[in-house]
Amino acid sequence: MALTPGSGRVPVRVFVRLKLRITGNSLRGRPARIVMFVLGLVAACGFAILGYAAFAVPGLLGRPAAAAVLFPFGGALIMLGWVFLPLLFFGVDNTLDPAQFALLPLRRRTLISGMTAAALAGLPALATLAATAGTVDSAARLGGVGAALAALLGIVCGLLLCVLLSRAVISAFATALRSRRARDLATIMLAVVTASIGPMELALLGLLNRADWDAVAGIAEVTGWTPLGAPYSMGVDVVAGRAWAVPLKVLIVLIAAGGLLLWWSRTLERAMAGAAGGAVPGRAMAPDPRAPVTRLLFRWSPRSRFGALTAREIRYWWRETRRRAALVTLGVAGVFLPITAAFAGGGEGATGMAFVVGAIAPVALANQFGYEGSAYATNLATGVPGRLEVHSRAAAHALYTVPTLVLVAVVTGLVADRPEGIAAQFGTLMATYGTGLALVLPISVRSAYALPDTNGPFSLSSGGGLSKALPGAAALIGAMVGALPVVLLVWMWPWLGLPVGLVYGAAAYWLGANVAGRLLDRRMPELLAAVTPR
Amino acid sequence: MNIPVQRPPSEGGTAAMSLRGLVKHFDTRLAVCGVSLEVPAGSFFGLLGPNGAGKTTTLSMAVGLLRPDAGQAVLLGYDVWHSPAEAKSLVGVLPDGVRMFDRLTGAELLAYHGLLRGMPADVVDQRARDLLDVLELGTGNRTLVVDYSAGMKKKIGLACALLHAPRLLVLDEPFEAVDPVSAALIRDILQRYVSGGGTVVFSSHVLEVVERLCSHVAIMSDGVLRMHGALADVRGERSLQEVFVQVVGGRVATGSELAWL
């Protein structure tokens, strides 16, 4: 007996139950995940309370003008957060991946309403609702019941828009990122964006300091008429006696929601088909006539095991997206941190920041074996000795990092207006880098962990966890403490900076690399097991 | 059920692979409990078993990728865990479920393997070209291994294992995801290799392939070696399929279930 197609209508609560069940099962028997979940819960509560408090302040103070600025801006910020935060930091919530429903006889309308409901039944949605409820509080104090009801309508509309916007953008992204090349590119872009958040923040603060409040109020008014701010300015409009604006803004929200739904349902189909889509055939490229060894090695590489290991590592720092993202981040941070510090605090700040960059540089190696995962089996099966492994990896990293550090030293010297100190600065950087390597290399052998095997850009930060980042952070601080003697020396006799820094860094590196090499000789299979994703 | 008594290692030559009492726990689960196995030199040895039987775990311990909780693995007279360099230099390995350095092109990957094995550059070049050509991977192909199809990945993995002309090949599921034409090619290569004096140990759950190729087989399930010996001895009068299902204790459909289908 076959079921007649389309006879079973799937109620929305099935999707909600499915999501809650998957969330629950993913926690079962995994203490680390439970801890992460509880931390997430605490963060969500914190966000809800702080948000509520911030939005309630204008009401408590009886300042409608402040509310007219805060609500559209705050609301727009939250909505943008729904789009960008998952992409940049938290990882996309794919508890209900549309691809998993591809084979079920579900109508698109059912799927979309189900997935919307499932997204609403989550911590971020609840926290957002609670935080924006502060606007209802304010509206009630400033404009009575009518304003409160308008604000309530507003926050519900706002939440719906947040969810639709983030789902639609993620769905579109998932479709666009089907090919490995596009994913690789997106990873790098995300790294650049993430790395430039700090400098951008400083720039924004500078602008705000100079802005006059009339102009800000004008921008807030305009923001209130865009879909981003419309839902959250409804209460304020009633307070200001513009009740007529509320239906118009509801209309704006509805139009925006309709557009998003259309966009989402268009990309959803392709996202669902994605599960079955195979690998995209590579572009037809002209064959490479060179001999295999010549293709692997660089012209100056020794034709030996060391040469092969280093050449492979050098190619990997460029071709493996997570590594390239780390390099890009180091480059951006290395150049911009001293510059912004120089503008904020003058030459001393820039020098200090450059020092920090030297300590950040080796941290990219803290989980160097995790990057390629189980591919390390190749080196294990061919019997690469530990010391050779460690030296070759450090050499490849240094090949990218040392020029960056030269650049950092030069930039710092120029923005701090002390070109004569560039050599000493570089010496200090090398001392910090060497000390950092000495600490990071044994850590990379001792506390390696598996990174998720996907090469999706959104898996950058997932699976991290505090305990895993801790050794790297410890090495960062350790590098700065360890290089302090050189800093003091440079402070007293600047001309000693370069030679002493180089020797100090090299000696520290030699010590650490040998420790790491011997450690690796003893626990190669354990290392392989540690970096193999399960 | 008749389980043949363990045969002593073939007289004269040493065993190509000799496992003694290998044990491996994962957390609380016993993945492999006490596997002892002699693979005679010059044999084509098939390790059979259902999914999760412990084949990959056993082979990983045999070639030095996974440290056993107890037991010994000797390859061509060298203990993998006491003289790893000597043992590993004589063995070619194709692991399953393990990534390769897949952000290299096929040619680069082969060059990498060759140089890590300490081979001279000109020999690496010549052999890598031969292998890429014979396995139809394209000598000038610029595609990264990560973008290869599953079958091509198996083939480049096999090429890496063959490059240094080892005396023992340990292949984990070499025929999985490989198309029939490539599978026939790989079979030919391996048969020629064995007739030239090499030894092949491979795992599979495709019984037809094992039955056609192997001189010796072993059947594992639940981490225990159930049967092993020359193919003719293990099979007896029956088909390998029957023996396998009986030994592993699988369920045979009688026709009464799923009647609605």
Can you offer a commentary on this structure?
The complex is a heterodimer of chains A (534) and B (261). Chain A starts with 11 loop residues before the first helix and ends with a helix. Helix content of chain A is 77%, strand content 0%. With 534 residues, chain A is an all-alpha fold. Helix content of chain B is 34%, strand content 25%. Chain B contains nine helices and ten strands. Chain B has helices at residues 55-63, 84-89, 106-116, 121-134, 150-162, 180-195, 207-213, 231-235, 240-248, and strands spanning 15-26, 29-40, 44-48, 70-75, 78-79, 91-94, 168-172, 199-204, 216-221, 224-230. In chain B, 49% of the residues are buried. Residues 1-12 of chain B have low confidence and may be disordered. Chains A and B meet through helix 10, helix 11, helix 14 and helix 20 of A and helix 2, helix 3 and helix 4 of B.
Summarize the structure.
By secondary structure, chain A is an all-alpha fold. In chain A, 77% of the residues lie in helices and 0% in strands. The two termini of chain B are 34 Å apart.
